[in-house]
Amino acid sequence: MAIGMNDLKNGLTIEYSNSIWRVLDFQHVKPGKGGAFVRSKLKNLRTGAVNEVTFRPGDKFEQADITTRPMSYLFAENDGRVFMDVESYEQVNLPDDKIENALKFLLEGMEVKITMYGNEILGAELPSTVSLKVTETQPGIKGATATGSGKPATVETGATITVPDFINEGETITVNTEDGSYKGRA
Predict the structure, then answer these.
(1) Is pTM beyond 0.85 here?
(2) What is the mean pLDDT of the chain?
(3) Local confidence band at 70 (pLDDT 50, 70, 90 cut-offs)
(4) Using CA atoms, how far apart are residues 149 and 163, in angstroms rounded to an integer?
(5) Which of 59, 108, 156, 174 could be 55's S-S partner, Cβ–Cβ 3.0 to 4.6 Å?
(6) What is the pLDDT of residue 146?
């Protein structure tokens, strides 16, 4: 379905410039002189690059048919990860470079949403928060509060995040998967 600049909205996926893009942000601009246009911020779903693109009134593009399938992470294999479709039990091997943003918080058995364009796998979407065990950090400080500057901690997936001073090794914490921030104890 062909769409134009007035049909843009956040989260829409489009085929543009020989790739698949998700609209992150857009703004209609009506200058005092000249024609109106749309200034947009697009994320390339194949490469992860974010570009600013200006669309004019005559520009047309196709809406991309993106599907998501729930899959369960099984194990690491060579330079990829093996996932199983929770409905058909079909196993898929995803290269690490396709899901590198998800690797920091990926645990065996975790259910993720795999984004696909036709048969092409574009990436993996984790739950918004995950519970992870702290494997390494400095000893907790008695009486410390959550408003302190924090300290680095390594979680069971190998990611390093900043946690409050009162967190100790062995504790399970909740982490925001989008920005890697500490959300609380699990």
Answers:
(1) no
(2) 88
(3) very high
(4) 9
(5) 59
(6) 56
